[in-house]
Amino acid sequence: MTILNTSEMEAIAARHPHLLRPSFWQRFRVPIIAVACTLYFLFAWWYFAVSKVMGEANWSIAGNYLADWVSYEIRPQIEIEADGAMRIEYPRFDPIGPNPNPEWLQTRRETVTRTIEIPAAASGNAGAAKPSSSFMAPAPQAQQAAPQSPSQETRTEKIVTEAMVAIGRSRTIEVHPDRVVLTRGSENVTLRLNRRSGEVRPDGALPSWVEQRLPGGRAVAYFGISGWAEISAERVRIRKRFLGWANFLFDTNSPFFGKPAAEIATLIVSGERIQPDRSNLSLAWNNILYNSEWQHLDVWEKLLQTVVMAFIGTLFAMLVAFPLSFIAARNIFANRPANQIAKRLFDFLRSVDMLIWALFFTRAFGPGPLAGISAIFLTDTGTLGKLYSEALENIDEKQREGVRSVGASPVAVQRYGTVPQVMPVFLSQALYFWESNTRSATIIGAVGAGGIGLKLWEAMRTNSDWENVAYMVLLILLVVFIFDGISNALRSRLIGKDRG
Amino acid sequence: MSISTVRPVLGESGRMIERHSRQLAAQRGFYTLLSVVLLLCVVSGSLWFANETNSGKFFERLPHLFDFVEDLVPRDGMEIWRALFDLPSPYDDGSFKYNYPEGRAYLGETFYIPEYFHKMVETLNIALVSTGIGLLFGFVLAFLAARNTMPNPWVRGVVRRIMEILRAFPEVVIAGFFLAILSLGPIPAVVAVSIHTVGALGKLFYEVIENADMKAEEGLRAVGANWLERIWFGIVPQVMPNFMSYFLLRLEINVRASTIIGAVGGGGIGELLRLSIGQGHEAKTLAIVLLLLLTIVAVDQFSAWLRQKLSGDQAFNAI
Fold first, then answer.
1. Cβ burial, residue B109 (10 Å; 0-12/13-18/19+)
2. What is the pTM of this model?
3. Which fold has domain A296-495?
4. Hey, is the C-beta of A352 within 8 angstroms of any chain B C-beta?
């Protein structure tokens, strides 16, 4: 072993300075690249106007939308009338159903004799006059008639005089005709309602969770995740949030709605037929499938479309790319022009994006999975063809020579000399594409090429169906994970664990 | 020359072997047949289903397949050129179909960038930024997910699950969610594509790390380097070429992805393409398709060339 002393090392270093002294680029490349990247990101920050967009963004909505993924709101509205009677109303499509009587909204009812003004619109003959008053000639007439007709009527009836909403644990809203008492933990706020001046005045200072923009204006009380309430002099609007998905199985029109599970089970097993022409089981199943809020059948059908699009598209792409790749491979098909034509065809199919194909075929076949299949098929024929022809150009020639040397026909040479080498790779790549196409089929669906993408997109557009989005996302994740598993298992069986 | 074949008489064990081999062959044939029949059933069932649920039926629409090609023929060939470079059209009748110069983005008095180039640059930037973000986070996560750099199985498992979810989460949903909050623009697209890219690159990266040679790391461990130093000096130099190669590959994919996301409302060229196809503006459509085609080919070629330079013969092919 040669041992160098210091002076010899220095001598060598002096003779070959470029070997031992790193160049400027070598020495400073990490900081240079870091600075370049930072500069680029700063440029992008400016280019996309990130700070402006973020500043204008509606972040409070974001929290609500996210909460909608896993929860729902029930929105009672308590109207306080002049004489202190209250009416509790729910919006038409509220998930609470047609006969609400929730435990968390307690009321005190009293029987009183009261005088009610019945406006003209409410009396019997108003039906004909009302639509015409909106924008046609008789409008002034109807308006003139209106002040005359309110008749006073004295009735004795049971009315709500007090309502108490338990909005969360130790969080309540008590509504009295003249005041609203809000409780959150140990804190208490009393808001005085002045009907005549239309003002809401708090007793004392407001805590941070009650907001009143203008003195005397409407107040909004936030109860965190459990909801919020908006209090004005004549009405209290309440949003109470519940965890979970409302009416996941039966919608509010179903005869099974609101019944506990045990009761539904007994009804299905041994109950009397609800509809005489069909069994309760088929009725229940039908109600689940056609649930108007969740649209289970439609969602499943669209999901199946997505799966089918990916499966058929990839399978056909593989079947077409397989023979074409033999033509494109230089070592197998010794005809330069044919190789080039096949390769350029692959490049063309690949480069015209899946999006463009999807948009074109949506016009050709109409929206639906056929467009998606065609788009995936054409793009993947290009990609798989390119990969396959490259794999073919890298095969081991010895096996083919061996088969050829015993006098096999050209077809037999490919069948026994080439295919056994490349088949596992081909299949494994096709499986990989099947799996990744299941994902991309979701996206091209959103432009109309069939599948669950469009349904997702529509659900998001309304901005109120985020729970449906969550449901579909969950199903998509499930399907993607299952296919991931199948494809990984098949691939590792095909080409061995270490290469999969 | 005649060859006389003598058929040897098989012994007891020979016959048994023959019987067994025939049995095996028959079994294999049966299974092959079964799987082919099964596959055919699945395929025909799927095709029937796809056709049944499509709004137009395959055989009804087939004769009209190329109708839309006719719709795509512009009034003259130069129209494509004019649409591409925002030059005024002689057919201009004030409608959106021929209003090419309106999209010009002026830089200074007379110099302008044509609308489609401008939007294409936006799409490319979306792709580049989100691939960059993906690289950054994927890089960090990959070291926490690889078996040889993160001995703790819990951390590894959690990081891998996170990456799987990021990868599988539909991009449309992320884009749609941020569109609802941020209003129209490229940022939802950037977020959506980035999230997917973090998952996808993270997975590829940790597989690279797991295949890295651990000798350098061992040497650093022997001289008492800490975790960060061992990774930075022992593993990063080995894996960096492969990382960059995957980065470029992902960039190619993301250019396409950001076009698609653009079409569902994320800005960029995709949105213009969807609009012009939907409204039947043939010259505009062809101009965008041409531009997109050229850009994708250019990006692919550039990335293939760079990958070849970075990792030589081991360059990865498109996946």
1. exposed
2. 0.81
3. MetI-like fold (1.10.3720)
4. yes
